[in-house]
Structure formats: structure tokens, C-alpha cells
């Protein structure tokens, strides 16, 4: 488990606790801040998982990943050129 994933889990747990305290105290601002922390923690975990998947894909077939990356870059270049015209 990566440190980014561990940080995401910790932030999610802290956010859930803050949500519950905010709900118990009737403080909507604290509850909303807790919800934001939960979402931030979940997004960190997703980024960590995506990094692992990308790392494994590159290790298994680097040429395929290079081709996909080049195709995406080419498509983005066409879209950027089209938006400038």
C-alpha cells in the first residue's frame, strides 16, 4: 500500500469523524468540511490506485502504452488546433 493511499484513508476517516461531530453539534459548516475531507481522501485513494494500474500496464506492455499515449496526444493536438481556428 502506497503512502498516498494511506494518507487518503486517514483523511477519509478524519472527514467522517468531522461530519459526525458537525451533525451532533448541529454545525452545517463543520459537517460540510468533513464531507469535503472524505471526498478528498477518496480521490487520493483513486489516484494511488490509478498510479498502480498505470505502472503495471507500462511494465507489461510498454509499446502499447506508448502508442496509446501518442494517439491521445495527437487527438488533443487536433482538438487544440481546431479550437484556435
TrEMBL record:
Keywords from the UniProt entry: Membrane, Transmembrane, Transmembrane helix
Xref: InterPro entries: YjbJ_sf
The organism's place on the tree of life at top rank: Bacteria
Transmembrane found in the keyword field: yes
Transmembrane region(s): 63-80
SUPFAM superfamilies from the UniProt entry: Hypothetical protein YjbJ
Protein name: CsbD family protein
Organism: Paraburkholderia guartelaensis
Organism lineage: Bacteria, Pseudomonadati, Pseudomonadota, Betaproteobacteria, Burkholderiales
